[in-house]
């Protein structure tokens, strides 16, 4: 699956090839439920019993036989609090005071709420009738035994924690977090905390942006900081990264300049180049390589470019390793203003997405047009609008595909 040469492959081809890469997505560990938040399930969560397992009161009231309500007055046998193993069986003309979550007594089929009756002298007087089965949760209303409640590959949130707690799931089988090493290359790059009197140097943001992005996607990140434009230094850093990480991500050094060493170093590491150069803007000089079960993703150096390319190429690989079905959500949205594409490639443009009456709309208010270095365009819950190779001028009202960046 190796491609060499200077021609760019299409975005669609690159994504198909990425999808075909074989990764180890069967690694897992078991963690306590309290530590499972944010992790990805490595197995389906299947109900072992019905919920509820018996007819249950859904509010406070009196358990009755519906046919007896016509009598207008019923005797009360006593209380039936939640958690009580109620064994009494109602006979004609009887009721039992029953509370929210309590098992409905045998023989009863309806719960009449407290507001509909008056209690006096051990009896209830019916003031307002209710339908048969009122306020009674039937067996299996929540779920039935054998139902798949949470699918493998789901990122565990508060609702998943609650459902598993209800199932008494003490330990949870979750995918091992893939380890991603991140490094920014370039002698012009200043790491955080470093001082320089040279105004031409650039403060590094790529390695911190990408580390946060990958952690948000479920990976464990190894932060390697920055490396100067020195072949031997970069070679050593890459080799060390591949020893400890599943994916090594670098920024800078993949273009065609005199100091762009990454493209030359990767083959020397014994890695096979899957492809170098994709017809996308920004980020067409991306390099994807594989060495055994390890992967190298060499991204452009500009902040916006590296972030977009990481979303398009690194996040799908992380998702595959975690067993997730999709790395991000893509929706169809309607342009609220005209859009003119700036290149012949597939373009990814930072945009704003609004939802009105259940429909997605796209605009570019506050988004600056310029180089691929403007990372601030991704602030304020931005999204990425996709314009295909054949697109040139898109009129307002046109539907476009948009990658949502809120949750991975």
From TrEMBL:
| BP GO terms, sorted | Mo-molybdopterin cofactor biosynthetic process
Q: Which SUPFAM superfamilies does its entry note?
A: MoeA C-terminal domain-like, MoeA N-terminal region -like, Molybdenum cofactor biosynthesis proteins
Transmembrane segments in this chain: where?
A: 295-319
Matching Gene3D superfamilies = MoaB/Mog-like domain (3.40.980.10), MoeA, C-terminal, domain IV (2.40.340.10), Molybdopterin biosynthesis moea protein, domain 2 (3.90.105.10), Molybdopterin biosynthesis moea protein, domain 3 (2.170.190.11)
Task: Specify whether Iron-sulfur is a keyword of the entry.
Answer: no
Enzyme Commission number(s): 2.10.1.1
One Pfam family from the UniProt entry?
Answer: MoeA_N
For this UniProt record, give its keywords in alphabetical order, as a comma-separated list.
Magnesium, Membrane, Metal-binding, Molybdenum, Molybdenum cofactor biosynthesis, Transferase, Transmembrane, Transmembrane helix
Which GO cellular component terms, listed alphabetically, does the Swiss-Prot or TrEMBL entry include? cytosol
Q: List the catalysed reactions.
A: adenylyl-molybdopterin + molybdate = Mo-molybdopterin + AMP + H(+)
For this protein, the record's InterPro entries field holds: MoaB/Mog-like_dom_sf (IPR036425), MoaB/Mog_dom (IPR001453), MoeA-like (IPR038987), MoeA_C_domain_IV_sf (IPR036688), MoeA_linker/N (IPR005110), MoeA_linker/N_sf (IPR036135)
Q: Which residues form the MoaB/Mog domain?
A: 181-320
Q: Does the keyword Membrane apply?
A: yes
The pathway is: Cofactor biosynthesis; molybdopterin biosynthesis
Q: Which cofactor does it need?
A: Mg(2+)
Q: Which GO terms describe its molecular function?
A: metal ion binding; molybdopterin molybdotransferase activity
* Family statement: Belongs to the MoeA family.
The identity of this protein, by name, is Molybdopterin molybdenumtransferase
Species in which this protein is naturally found: Sulfurimonas paralvinellae
């Amino acid at each position: 699956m190796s491609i060499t040469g200077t021609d760019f492959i299409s975005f669609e081809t690159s994504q198909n090839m990425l999808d075909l890469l074989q990764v180890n997505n069967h690694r897992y560990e078991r963690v306590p439920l309290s530590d499972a938040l944010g992790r990805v399930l490595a197995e389906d969560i299947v109900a072992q019993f019905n919920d509820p397992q018996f007819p249950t009161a859904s509010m406070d009231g009196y358990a009755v036989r519906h046919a007896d309500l016509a009598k207008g007055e019923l005797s009360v046998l006593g209380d039936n609090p939640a958690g009580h193993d109620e064994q009494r069986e109602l006979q004609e003309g009887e009721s039992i005071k029953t509370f929210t979550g309590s098992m409905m007594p045998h023989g009863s089929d309806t719960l009449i709420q407290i507001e509909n009756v008056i209690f006096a002298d051990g009896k209830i007087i019916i003031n307002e009738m209710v339908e048969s089965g009122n306020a009674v949760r039937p067996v299996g209303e929540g779920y039935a035994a054998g139902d798949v409640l949470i699918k493998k590959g789901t990122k565990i949130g508060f609702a998943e924690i609650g459902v598993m707690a209800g199932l008494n799931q003490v330990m949870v089988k979750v995918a091992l977090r893939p380890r991603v090493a991140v490094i920014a290359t370039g002698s012009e790059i200043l790491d955080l905390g470093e001082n320089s009197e040279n105004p031409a140097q650039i403060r590094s943001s790529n390695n911190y942006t990408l580390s946060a992005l990958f952690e948000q996607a479920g990976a464990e990140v190894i932060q390697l900081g920055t490396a100067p434009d020195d072949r031997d230094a970069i070679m050593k850093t890459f080799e060390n990264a591949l020893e400890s990480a599943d994916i090594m991500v670098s920024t800078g050094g993949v273009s065609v300049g005199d100091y762009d060493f990454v493209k030359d170093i990767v083959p020397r590491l014994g890695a096979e180049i899957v492809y170098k150069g994709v017809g996308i803007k920004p980020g067409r000089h991306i390099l994807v390589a594989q060495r055994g079960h390890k992967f190298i993703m060499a991204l452009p150096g500009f902040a916006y470019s590296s972030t977009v390319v990481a979303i398009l190429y690194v996040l799908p690989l992380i998702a595959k390793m975690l067993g997730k079905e999709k790395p991000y959500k893509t929706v169809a949205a309607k342009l609220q203003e005209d859009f003119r594409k700036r290149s012949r490639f597939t373009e990814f443009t930072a945009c704003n997405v609004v939802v009105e009456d259940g429909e997605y709309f796209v605009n570019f208010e506050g988004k600056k047009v310029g180089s691929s270095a403007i990372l601030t365009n991704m602030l304020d819950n931005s999204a990425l609008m996709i314009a295909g190779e054949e697109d040139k001028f898109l009129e307002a009202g046109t539907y476009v595909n948009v990658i949502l960046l809120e949750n991975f």
